Amino acid sequence: MSATPQDILVHTEAGVTTITLNRVDKKNSLTRAMYATLADTLAQAEADASVRAVLLQGDITVFSAGNDIGDFLAQPPAEQDAPVFRFLHAIAAFPKPLVAAVCGPAVGIGTTMLFHCDLVYAGDNAAFSMPFVNLGLCPEAASSLLAPRLLGYHRAAEALLLGEPFMAEAAMEVGLVNRVVPPTECNAIAQAQARKLAAKPLSSLIETKRLMKKGMLEPVLERMAEEGASFGRMLREPAAREAFTAFMEKRRPDFSAH
Ligand code: COA
């Protein structure tokens, strides 16, 4: 599957690169091509000295429905340099501040990518979920490491084993979200915060982020690699294929044989 150039919009102004997920008719689900664009954009933003912060935003109605299920069925990522893994590596290791604005559903990687953002602003319609088990899969983006750390083990188990969604207020309570705001204002508030960051000395931002994250990158990348190997294998197994086929056929999955 190929992404149209409009699936991801990139705009740099006032030191902030704004990345907008713009495939709203498919709920901003992410294709291979979109992951490649995201990874390339982060690499450019890292290299460009005039970029001091990155804002990742979706639509007022939806942040992202996660991986494009049809795309994953057709081309399950296997190799470590698959676009999805390149994106995850880039977002985990990104040295400059990353801000996210989240409205509506944030499913799967739509939620797990937020563990790697520095500031997260959520519309009061935001709904976070990590339904990997419901899809016959396992966590990705180092969420098996970071969710228990952030949410506490039992809340993480509810989110990761049961796949239960949690809303913006609950996400703020556990510290995944900085502030809950009206959806109509979310992108503008996040943009204003990103511009505040962009007005600060870049070297201080980079050094402070590095120090805050010191010692975390290596275990995160190690866990991502382990999760990625399991995720890639499980994508090809019957439970995931049943879950994905059921989604495409708009019916409930039948896991009785799995
Ligand atoms: N991959 C591919 N297509 C997707 C998608 C995904 N992850 N999520 C939504 N879409 C498509 C739907 O197939 C539908 O396409 P169609 O109009 O051609 O039929 C369109 O986007 C609208 O989706 P729909 O389910 O009708 O919207 P909704 O508002 O009722 O529900 C969601 C929104 C996000 C709750 C729901 O789409 C959903 O649960 N998506 C799957 C999430 C998921 O399991 N992601 C994978 C994580 S690994």
Give your account of this protein's structure.
The protein contains eleven helices and nine strands. By secondary structure, the chain is an alpha/beta fold. The protein has one domain (8-182, 203-210): 2-enoyl-CoA Hydratase, Chain A, domain 1 (Alpha-Beta Complex). The chain has a six-stranded mixed sheet, sandwiched between helices. Strand 2 (16-21), helix 1 and strand 3 (53-57) form a beta-alpha-beta unit. Helix 1 (32-47) packs parallel to helix 3, helix 3 packs antiparallel against helix 10 (217-235) and helix 5 crosses helix 10. Residues 26-27, 29, 65-70, 105, 107-108, 131, 135 line the site of coenzyme A.
Task: Provide a compact summary of the structure.
The protein has eleven helices and nine strands. The protein is α/β, with parallel strands linked by helices and 258 residues long. The protein has one domain: Alpha-Beta Complex (2-enoyl-CoA Hydratase, Chain A, domain 1), CATH 3.90.226.
Helix and strand arrangement:
Elements: E1 8-13, E2 16-21, H1 32-47, E3 53-57, H2 69-74, H3 83-93, E4 98-102, E5 105-107, H4 109-112, E6 119-123, E7 127-129, H5 143-151, H6 153-160, E8 166-167, H7 168-174, E9 179-181, H8 183-198, H9 202-212, H10 217-235, H11 238-248
Parallel strand pairs: 2-3, 3-4, 4-6, 5-7, 6-9
Antiparallel strand pairs: 1-2, 7-8
Helix pairs in contact: 1-3, 3-10, 5-6, 5-10
The protein binds coenzyme A (COA).
Coenzyme A binds at residues 26-27, 29, 65-70, 105, 107-108, 131, 135.
